[in-house]
Design goal:
alpha/beta, 6-stranded parallel β-sheet, 4-stranded parallel β-sheet, 44% helix
């Protein structure tokens, strides 16, 4: 099968590509590198520059690769708007892709400001409305909920073969509107073989870490307050670090020194960052709530759920301090879970099955 993966999000498509290659498929990724994460791709679309120069560079890159965006058995978008919206460029390129390829799919993996169905669910029906409020601060016009955005979304969803969600938050909105092309939710793929597992042993103090990336959406202000309180209460037992915006390789290297990762406060599931941490054998705080378990028919997971409240987050972290002898084994359970549930080859097979069926 000849496959084009369009766009990138924290190496999601890169991991999926490796799983597909292992099964003998021909795979091409076209992306801008996902900003400062600098993730490699086969074809360069878009740019990381801002302003007029950024628009110009983006157009040049698109013109160069456009002839190579056709002739695929499957094209999968990471979100429905990957090209410049001005002058109707995005819609024109998307129409070109629709005409010149066999099957088209969308991965529902965030993109709230671009996908109207996800935006509506986040605003009106998700258990943590704070998430939508934070996204709205970053995207005050919320294009996905404008007349133009809704019109484009209708066009896009009517013309693709299916939507594949990666978690409850991105599946439920489509279920609520009875979207007829909704595929089963598929876990996040991770190349476990390339991620080094290191036994999670506490050296001197327990190292707690929260990564800076979309701070409002991750609940960083709440997490930061809880971490400061923990450090003040247990100064001789814990080290709390908040840092981020590192290239992916540097980030993974840094994680080797960490025992516990506080991922995010407004999610009931686990995102790409959390899966990296699970694979490395870290204790991951955030996600793993009932909705996540039900979405994948799981009875349990190694994730430690938290509510978006400073005191609740603090209590979970304090429990880990008081039960620090459990951390090594909890880290091993994280690794085992990632191997069983997120293995890139197993997940790639689920994508092939969905693409064949829909």
């Amino acid at each position: 099968m000849k496959i084009l993966l369009l766009g990138e999000f924290s190496a999601f498509h890169s991991n999926l590509k490796e799983g597909l290659l292992s099964q003998g498929h021909e795979v091409t990724i076209a992306s801008s590198g996902d900003g400062w994460k600098k993730i490699n791709s086969d074809l360069k679309i878009g740019t990381n520059r801002e302003g007029v120069l950024g628009k110009l560079e983006s157009l040049i890159n698109i013109i160069k690769v456009l002839p190579r965006l056709k002739g695929y058995d499957v094209v999968q978008f990471i979100d429905p708007v990957l090209f410049p919206k001005f002058l109707g460029i995005n819609k024109a390129i998307v129409k070109f892709i629709f005409r010149n390829n066999k099957k088209i799919f969308l991965v529902a993996a965030g993109a709230t400001s671009k996908i109207s169905v996800i935006a509506d669910f986040s605003q009106n029906r998700f258990k943590y409305p704070q998430l939508y409020q934070q996204i709205k601060k970053i995207n005050p016009d919320m294009w996905s909920q404008t007349q133009k955005g809704r019109h484009y979304n209708t066009f896009f969803l009517e013309n693709i073969n299916g939507v594949i969600p990666i978690m409850h938050e991105y599946a439920q909105g489509f279920r609520d509107i009875n979207y007829p092309k909704l595929c089963p939710t598929i876990p996040i793929p991770m190349n476990i073989e390339t991620i080094k597992y290191k036994e999670n042993i506490i050296e001197d103090k327990i190292v707690f870490f929260h990564g800076l990336n979309r701070e409002g959406m991750k609940g960083t202000p709440l997490i930061s307050k809880a971490m400061k309180k923990l450090e003040k209460t247990y100064p001789n037992e814990v080290v709390c670090i908040i840092d981020g915006r590192m290239p992916l390789e540097k980030y993974l290297s840094f994680l080797e020194t960490v025992n516990v990762v506080i991922d995010q406060a407004y999610s009931v599931s686990v995102g790409v960052n959390g899966v990296y941490n699970l694979a490395m054998g870290k204790v991951v705080v955030g996600g793993g709530e009932t909705e996540f378990l039900n979405e994948f028919n799981l009875s349990e997971s190694p994730l430690l759920p938290i509510k978006p409240e400073v005191e609740n987050i603090y209590q979970q972290l304090e429990w880990l301090v008081k039960n620090k002898n459990e951390i090594t084994n909890m880290g091993l359970e994280s690794r085992k879970f990632s191997e069983a549930f997120h293995d890139y080859k197993k997940v790639a097979s689920q994508y092939i099955e969905a693409w064949d069926k829909y």
